[in-house]
Amino acid sequence: MSADQFTDGRPIVFRDALVLTMDDSHDVLPHGDVLVVGDRIAEVGSALTVPDGAVEIDASGGILMPGMIDTHRHMWQTAMRGYGADWTLTQYFVWYYLEYGNHFRPQDIYAGNALSAIDALDSGVTTTVDWSHGLRTIEHAEAALQSLRDSAGRFVFAPGNIFGAPWEWSASADFQSFIRANDTGSDMLRFQLAFDVTGDPAFPERTAFEVARELGLPVTTHAGVWGATNDDGIRLMHENGFMTPETVYVHAATLSTDSYQRIAATGGSVSLSTESEQSCGQGYPPSWVLREHGIPMSLSVDTSVWFSSDLFTAMRSTLGADRSWEHVKAHEKGETVTHSHLRAEQVVDWATRGGAKALGLDDLVGSIEKGKKADLVLLKNDGSPSMFPILNPYGHVALQAGRADVHTVVVDGKVAKHEGKLVGEDLARIRSQAEETVEYLRSTLGDDVWQAGMNPEIPETKVLDNPYMYTEFRTEATHTAI
Beta-carbon neighbour count of residue 477 at 10 Å? Predict the structure, then answer.
């Protein structure tokens, strides 16, 4: 089927799919049809009668699910994909915050965002929070925002600036004018404010919270990050009345019971970046403790300078981390876990409906229901043995499927990917922009600095003495044999 068929606004119907609606009842339709008219889901059912001229997509043997939602991605860093594969969080902070992040020009922000935007769409992520904390100037912010507008995806733009104090940059007249001029309430582009709370008793972040409130913006903040943000930040937010149901706490991995209770009581949610929490040291991925406190969750990639850029990996790693923790804690008590508390169905919910609820978009996206925006993902790959048989659809999405199985992606009723290929995207242009950014940074830093940053020193490892090696005995035996 040619992608040209989707350019004239014709209705689209997915036929004979296994439909994961992710509605309130989590209804599953084994042989479902979904009709898209304009930017909305017009009908959900079986053997639907559709308008003349509708484009029919054969979804048999596939899973149709809502578009996935990433609630925390530093998109500007994507041109550096994989560069920090062996970093610790300290090395990340030093490289970006203290030494080299300020070398990024507006065009480099654009290049990273543009690459990240199509990367997300390719993997079935239809809504992404751009946790855009590299914006040193308004020109950087304009470049980041333009890249989102140039993409087919749906976004929440969360501007921030790691190179300045949030109570300063948020209060500047230029920044506030930028927000007011661009936050038009579009369904395709919403806004948050992104900054962290250090726990300073003086609570200088009050100004940023007040700006967010004045501008009508939710706040997203890295909380419970070992050595960086802690319980004092949560306490100060709560005591000063700045914890709201719209607040998204990223990571939340090293908080006390008191802090989790404050989050739960005020209705906030947590964005889990499990790959990041596992690798960087923010703290053990906290889904287990968030479950205990009834705190809503969503999933996120964090940054492709380290991690996978798809939510399949996020679902998989979250299931693994949660279950691993449950087993370890049971083993410490001499017990055995016989039933897993966290199920595949739950992480699929966090990757879709959970993200929509966290962002205040639940009335628009996150589930396949009549009247909602048509953000849809068809997983279907007839050439792959990993896509059959489909017995447990939630288990298949969370543990079996991957980016290569994303057949069709629809955002706001428009096809962004079909038959495994992106539609209407100039990959050559985006590749060229990313390569130009890499070459600029490499030449600016110098090859020695570039290589050292990408290949940090490996600490010396002491191999423990092993009394079963019998080294002396083997040496004597060898000498005797000679």
Answer: 11
Mean pLDDT score of the chain: 95
Say whether pTM exceeds 0.85: yes
Are the beta carbons of 67 and 377 closer than 8 angstroms?
yes
Task: Give per-residue pLDDT as tens, 146-199.
Answer: 999 999 999 999 999 999 999 999 999 999 999 999 999 999 999 999 999 999
pLDDT at 479 over 60: no
Angstrom distance (rounded) from CA 396 to CA 385: 12
CA distances for 355 relative to 118, 134, 295, angstroms = 19, 23, 13
CB atoms within 10 A of CB 162: 19
CA distance 84 to 280: 11
Residue linked to tokens 């719209």: 246
The Cα–Cα gap between 304 and 113 comes to: 11
Omega within 30 of 0 (cis) for the link into 286:
no
Tell how far CA 154 is from the center of its chain.
13
Distance CA 200, CA 3 (A): 54
